[in-house]
Amino acid sequence: MKQGAAITNCGTLPLAEVPLLTRAEFGRFVADSVSGGSRISAMFACDAPGGLTMYAVLAGASTGQICVASTKPSGGMDSIVPECPQAHLFEREVSEEYGIEFRGHPWMKPVRFMEGGPASAATCDFFRIGGEEVHEVAVGPVHAGIIEPGHFRFQCHGETVHHLEIALGYQHRGIAKALRGRPDRRRTMLAEAIAGDTSVGHATAYCSALEALCGTDVPARAQVLRGVALELERMANHIGDLGALAGDVAFLPTMSFCGRIRGDVLNITAEMCGNRFGRGLVAPGGLVRDIDGDVAGRMSASLSKAVSEAEEAVSLLWDTPSVIGRFEGTGTVTRALASAIGLVGPAARASGLELDSRRDFPGGIYRMSHIPLSVWDSGDVFSRALVRWMECQRSAAFVREQLASLPGGPVSAPPADLPRNRITVSITEGWRGEICHVLLSDDRCGILECRTVDPSFHNWFGLACAMRGGQISDFPLCNKSFNLSYCGHDL
Amino acid sequence: MLRIIRARLRQGHRTTRYPAGPPPSLPERYAGMPVIDGAECPSGCSRCIDACPAGAVARCGRSVSIDTGMCVFCGACETACPRGAISFTREHRLASRDREGLIVKPGAAPGPRDIFDAKAAAVFGRSLKLRQVSAGGCNACEADTNVLGTVGWDLGRFGIQFVASPRHADGLLVTGPVTLNMREALLSTYDAVPEPRIVIVTGACAISGGLFRGMPATSGGAEGLLPVDLYIPGCPPHPLTILDSLLRFLGRTGPDGRKAPGGRIRAAKPVGEPE
Predict the structure, then answer these.
(1) Chain A residues 196-225 within an 8 A CB cutoff of chain B
(2) Confidence of residue A274 (pLDDT cuts 50, 70, 90)
(3) What are phi and psi of A13, to 5 degrees?
(4) Is the peptide bond before A141 cis (omega within 30 degrees of 0)?
(5) Chain A within 8 Å of B233 (Cβ-Cβ)?
(6) Which site among A64, A131, A267, B148 is 20 to 30 Å from A45 CA-CA?
(7) pTM over 0.70
(8) B8 neighbourhood in chain A, CB within 8 Å
(9) CA distance B245 to B68
(10) Which pLDDT tens digit goes with each residue over A94-137?
(11) DSSP 3-state percent helix, strand, coil across chain B (nearest 5)
């Protein structure tokens, strides 16, 4: 088998050193890497100096190794989806953007319904089940509640869902294109807006990629505070979701408490930069602003209070049989399926997969301080809830420890010029899972291509699979147990 | 059951007393309404204009103005100014009923604008049901609108609720730069809201397109697509900003943001047919 080039997280290579494989070799490289235990972190095409080029980034959690390879896809490719299901959305994306044909792809449709393509996700063809008394349920794009838009098409027989197809693209803003060109403040903020609930995660992944390319040495204090902000983001979202899960099974005490506590955690992030979502905190080179000892002390005290209140609120869930009865056995994704479709983050860990970028591809502070892996293997809503709670507790301990021993020094390194024609892969464990940003520089000190893969891109199909054989009335609960990003997927 | 009761006692009653009492405190580094001291501007200087990632700072005579409908409150202009002519105050009351009112000019007082709408107060003052539509929003505005429904804020106290169907709604609260792919759904949702109806746009994206302004897959916000009754700036607006906007708009609080006697500041006028 032809090999890719090995690269570490936030390592960088000259573009010329990325192996150029034939289309057949490229397909084999991806499929064999996946069957050997790696995952596709990113696979995309872009207009490189030598014409249209397709890149694949494979991440091997067990080896800690990231491999990159490329090919010239023009003329069409044989789809690897029949033997490597996790490639399905990546191939669809390349096909939508560049018209490349993937022969044998089982379900070729647009991903984001970009300008010039078919009008709407809801009016496309859907996979349909025929037969007596089979009925379709169409939901969205505008859903009940305050939630982003997407379209869900269920194939049902009575209450039972036999198939769910998720059609997104409504939130497509064109961020990937906008991130090309010379890096500036607006582009950093656009990276933050890839998914607002993951502002710190995406900003960290994006800035780390730029820093890797430029060879910027980010000061230790900034690395630590980035880690603090990342873990606060994780806690706020997990606590909010545990509350929302309680709400979905009509258990109001935990819903009420956690809804409020989530805000308390956001307010701790706001102590750092004035913004509850951490907007304007992370910048290339480090942080926009430092915090002093008083702020760190306040943050730590607020966090202790929030965590002890969350502990009490969440323990009610585990002690209430009617809640556990709804959580257990609902929306199960087996370990084998999770691995085949390439799930990441808490959803993967809740199906027993030992994956966590903070451990597997550590960057920044995670190279120095380790957070234990939170894994449970039942693969159901209960498991996804439990994993989130374990993560919350471990993140809280980490944040308190870091705030108590902040290194001194500056929080920002001076900017450096982008080198020409290089590639870097930057991986950050966001609260939903692996955030991967791949940056390619051009020959004029700009960004040729910035590919951002939100964890939701991997996980939406997991939600569809979780619903199979379940009841349609359990959809809100399943959906919330994943709580994926629409805009992060649609870019 | 006993454990639940015990937890409830320990967690306590945590709904803010606002507007009867003080509002929840804002973070120390919160950036609210900007003020511009035009006398400080060196001639020909454009550092703040160049520094703004959102294109919100524009020439205004020999000084500049800041369009808070485009501003993402990042403070880049404040940092860039060598003379300290721009500063962001802690004023969280940012809303306006017209687009022009969002533009902060040199020397303007940083106080809130009067956003009381007598007609809206008469029709919706005691019961306002809104349908939220996210049209390309990054989920930050959505999240901090959603938070108003939690016990900490308890929006329901004011008769304001978010409902599932536009048919049950008195208006829309729109977030996001309105992507091309959401235009039709947004307009259809608006059409489904019975009259009289209002439109509230929340966040820089929905007001002007925000950071996405000029990007071909977006429409530059709801402006020009829908008749807007209330603009709430921010990226995202703090929940307190959103709540204050709704309450003053409906006259549930006075211009100073304090609770109005009887929950109303002016007698309801009879309302004619909407234009």
Answers:
(1) 196-197, 199
(2) very high
(3) -135, 150
(4) yes
(5) no
(6) A64
(7) yes
(8) 253
(9) 15
(10) 999 999 999 999 999 999 988 777 767 788 889 999 999 999 99
(11) 30, 15, 50
